Amino acid sequence: MGEAIPADEFEERFVEPEDPVHPPTLEQGSPWVLSQIVYYVIAFVTQNGWFCVGLAIAGYYLWSKFQPKVQELKARQERDKEAAEYHKDPDKFIAKERAIAAARQRMQEEYNRKSEKHLEELKLREEQKRQQQVEENAQAAGGAPRRLNETNDYASSNTVNKKNDKAKPRLRPEYNPLMSDYSSSSGWRPSRSTGGG
């Protein structure tokens, strides 16, 4: 390793200049004016907090109240400026109207193309559905044996279900919930009132 340097030689070799190049602290302080402004603002807010909240609410209310009117005023000024410009040079107005009409025409043509394409797709789907139904009917007619009086499997299953419904009545035929039934053993019968007289 290296030789040890005595302290005296070290001090002689590395002597700091009297006028240092760097400041003693490397922190950059904020400007005095800025720090004073921040201090006064914070002090005002801490002392008058509710006043600041009320002021903010009032400002928001006024902004929401007057913003549409300001925007309307700006739009009106812009329209007036545009109208004055077109009044000076009517060719600009005519060119703008032609450009708008051409854009509308392009949009209408595109809409017409899309609607025609959509109608063709709908017709194609309907044709495919019809073709599929014809194929299903052909398979049903030629594939499975059927009874002579049945048109298809759905109708035969439907008639069987109707027969089963008729076979099982839900309630007794003599039962009517609106009428009292004294023959049942689980009914309440009022007591006989006797006249006291």
Automatic annotation (TrEMBL):
Region (Disordered): 124-197
Main localization (coarse): cytoplasm
One GO term (biological process): retrograde protein transport, ER to cytosol
Taxonomy, superkingdom: Eukaryota
Annotated GO CC locations: Derlin-1 retrotranslocation complex; Derlin-1-VIMP complex
Membrane topology of the entry: Single-pass membrane protein
TM helices/strands, residue ranges: 37-63
Positions with biased composition (Basic and acidic residues): 124-133, 162-173
Cited InterPro entries: Selenoprotein_S
Keywords: Cytoplasm, Endoplasmic reticulum, Membrane, Selenocysteine, Transmembrane, Transmembrane helix
Location(s), subcellular: Cytoplasm; Endoplasmic reticulum membrane
Biased composition (Low complexity): 180-197
Biased composition regions of type Polar residues, renumbered to the chain: 151-161
UniProt record similarity statement: Belongs to the selenoprotein S family.
UniProt protein name: Selenoprotein S
Native organism: Meganyctiphanes norvegica (Northern krill)
